[in-house]
Each structure stands twice: as structure tokens, then as C-alpha cells.
């Protein structure tokens, strides 16, 4: 592919990139020839857009139908008080054009859905998720797989963040990590759970770095790896993600062949003031300690994925990932108490419903999951 030349102004602007032997002139030309679609101009999309524009990505699409609010400015640093009430896509486009007038910026103030996703994404090489929104995340993943594009994933929650790269030919996709969307409102938004203002800046900057690496072909992108960041402990871990042969969209026999909307998964709220899901059959970590000292003890059912148990694990558990649960109910005696847990007490709610439908009477949910246990009972366990 013939790469576009750099003007004298661009040579001056990108001189620090040109000094890097890994990027140099050819890498900067690749950046100029590239195009990136950023879906969401909030906390994550802000640093992604700013740094990709500053780096010289030639064409940037900005998708967001929301308007700038004062509460956004604690973390959405691409906007300012002068643009309060303006469309985020327009506000962000103005900021990027001021930052780098030598690139093409396309504001797209529309709701990104299954009807328009393909058309909107036409002409863009890479898709970056800046929404931190569960329905959109599945839509972006499916779009990336079906159209053979790379998808740079980022997620934030309170003080923690995640980054990975999905959609690579031989790598996993987001559904390999989380095969199905969670139940309605299983994940609280920033407005419900809160978020440390600098966290999306950190995670979004990592997303931008991964995007630049993908464009220029340098380094080792996070394909098949999930980066976990904790701002409170200032810790970073990376765990491997395997491509699932049974993945419904990138597996050996895919069943998803068209884009669909997932908005129905996140409509109302079932969270209390802590942001943790609550059910009528919750068990607090302190109560579980007492139950485990009783005789007979309840069965501890871990419905997380295998890679999560590599991060933190409780002793003496029955380990069955949520999606495999219905096929392995024979591992659980029907006449014994069962306490189900996962990472944050979300998937375990669904697992409990599966068990109850199957006739299990004494089923309980560890409220807050293994992370609550690590926070309140066993400080030696890693929270993730």
C-alpha cells in the first residue's frame, strides 16, 4: 500500500514519533493513512480521541448522541463548561480540530444501533469502545467480528479498569470472555456506582496506545490477554483469554450472523446504595463464614470462568462456569444448601435462578461475590 507523504508541518508536529525507531517515518505515515471509529465520547472516549488525534490518525469518527452535562466534566476531559448542553460528538470534534487541524474529524451525533452500525463503520479500520456500556459493547464486538475489524475494548468500574483487543483473526472476541450479556441492570453505570475521575483517563490512554500499536504494527498488542488495573492498589495484572471453540460468533459453528440490539439487558435498576445487586436470597460474607463453620457445610458453587480462578480462588468449591451449569447439575446434590458466587455477585444471581428452576430449594447468593469476600474477610485474596 502506498502511504501518504508528510507535509513539513506534519514533520514538525510528529518529530518525537519520528525519532522512535519502532515508529519512524513509515509508522507515522501509517497513522496518517489510518482511520478509527470511536463509539462514545465520555470518560474513556475522551483520552482515546485526544491522543489519537494528537498522534496523527488521519481520520477519526466520533459517535455519541448524548449532550455534555456538568457532571461529565469530572472525567470527560475532552469537553468543557463552554460546551455544556452541546452534543458530545460536536464538542469533541471541535476540540480535536483545534488540537490537530491536519486530520479529518467526523462527528456522528446518532444513537449507535444494529440498524446503522454497519453503515456508520464503513471506511474505518479499527473500532474503539469508549462507551463503557454493556449493550453497545456486545454490538461493537459483533460488528467487529462480522466485518473483520479490530476492536479495542476498555471498561471501568469505580477504581478498576480493563483493556483488551478483540477481533484478531486467531484471537478471542469479547464473547469468548463473556459469552452472553448479563441480566437486566446487572452492571451499574457510573452514575449509579461512581467512578474515580482519573481512572478513565488511565484506561483510555492504554486503549489509545493499543490502537497506535495496531496501526503501526509495533509491540505486542493485548490480543488474547486482559489487562486488569486497580487504582487503589496501583496494581496491574494481565491474564490470558482463550478463544472459545463454542463462541456463538467467532467459534467453530457460529450462530450469530446478524447484528442485534441488546438494550433490553440494561433498562432498570436493581442496585442498592453500594452499587451491588441485592436479591431476597443474599448471604453477606460474614454470614457465609458462620455457615462454613456449621455442620453440614453448604456447597460453594463458583460460576466464574477458569481464567478468573487463576486470579483468586476459594477453597473447597465446585467449579462450573455459568454457561455450563445446566449441563452439569448432576455435580450438585439437590438436598444440600448451595451458596453461589462469582466475581461481584452478578452472574451468581442468574446461576441461582437456573438452580431454582431445576428444583433446588436451598440456594443462596454471596452478595458482592468473591471481591466482597476479599474486601471484608480474606485480605490476601486479589480483587479484580
Features:
384 residues; alpha/beta; Rossmann fold; Oxidized Rhodanese, domain 1; 8-stranded mixed beta sheet; 5-stranded parallel beta sheet; 14 helices
Protein architecture, described:
The chain has 384 residues and is an alpha/beta fold. The chain folds into two domains: 34-265, Rossmann fold (3-Layer(aba) Sandwich), CATH 3.40.50; 282-376, 3-Layer(aba) Sandwich (Oxidized Rhodanese, domain 1), CATH 3.40.250.10. The chain has 14 helices and 13 strands. Helix 4 packs parallel to helix 5 (88-99). The protein is elongated.
Supply the number of structural domains: 2
Number of strands: 13
Instruction: Return the CATH class of the largest domain.
Output: Alpha Beta
Q: Please trace the helix and strand order, writing H or E for each element.
A: HHHEHEHEHEHEEHHHEEEHEHEEHEH
What CATH architecture of the largest domain do you see?
3-Layer(aba) Sandwich
Helical fraction equals 25-40%
The description of the largest β-sheet is: 8 strands, mixed
> Looking at the structure, what is the overall shape?
elongated
The class by helix and strand makeup works out as alpha/beta
Span between termini: 42 Å
Task: Walk across the major sheet and give the strand order.
Answer: 3-2-1-4-5-6-7-8
Strand-residue proportion = 15-25%
Unreliable sequence segments: 264-278
The CATH topology of the largest domain comes to Rossmann fold
Q: Which whole number gives the mean pLDDT?
A: 89
What's the number of helices?
Answer: 14
The CATH homologous superfamily of the largest domain is termed NAD(P)-binding Rossmann-like Domain
Integer-rounded radius of gyration? 22 Å
